[in-house]
Write a structure and sequence with these properties.
The structure holds two protein chains of two kinds. Chain A has no helices and eleven strands. Chain A is mainly β. In chain A, strands 2, 4, 5, 9, 10 and 11 form a six-stranded mixed β-sheet that branches. By secondary structure, chain B is mostly beta strands. Chain B is built from no helices and eleven strands. The chains are: A mainly beta, B mainly beta. At the A-B interface, strand 5, strand 9 and strand 10 of A face strand 5, strand 6, strand 9 and strand 10 of B.
Chain lengths: 112, 113
Amino acid sequence: GQSLEQPSEVTAVEGAIVQINCTYQTSGFYGLSWYQQHDGGAPTFLSYNALDGLEETGRFSSFLSRSDSYGYLLLQELQMKDSASYFCAVRDVSGSARQLTFGSGTQLTVLP
Amino acid sequence: DSGVTQTPKHLITATGQRVTLRCSPRSGDLSVYWYQQSLDQGLQFLIQYYNGEERAKGNILERFSAQQFPDLHSELNLSSLELGDSALYFCASSLRTGTDTQYFGPGTRLTVL
């Protein structure tokens, strides 16, 4: 099976940089994904890392270290609209290889 | 807007009842996934269909069932409802199976009284 750990809450101020960490344990590994979910809304895909290193998409970047089973999502120039829950996810390859397992989510609060 | 539609948006029902949630995937997507999200919980994978066939099963209760029709829309049937079934139910779709990029619908909020 798989398990993912991420902090339950993070708070930062507008304009700051925040990092949301995710450690995972899986029986197999394809890559690490990140999703954003605003309160009561639909999760939206942010990024995917299959290889070690940093992937940058605008103000958001995602990092993966396969050897450490660790990744993070970096949000720069925080805006109020970034207040949301952020989920890391890995794909289960032990069974059907088609199922995403999500972490419990990190609630990011951006203060003015 | 992801292109995935779900109906109804809200559903209130009583314990013991049966409900059907409907999902239409993005145009061209063949895979449909169902997730349950209880209050302050993460997304729990329930079941996946690809081009009409069941492809993966997660922690789906025996009281729950799903299917994908020839036009690729999917329905999730929940029966003998219990209070603990109250949750947000999301449908997601993707072009292929085994992809990490899934497009989620707006969800159906089910309340069981």
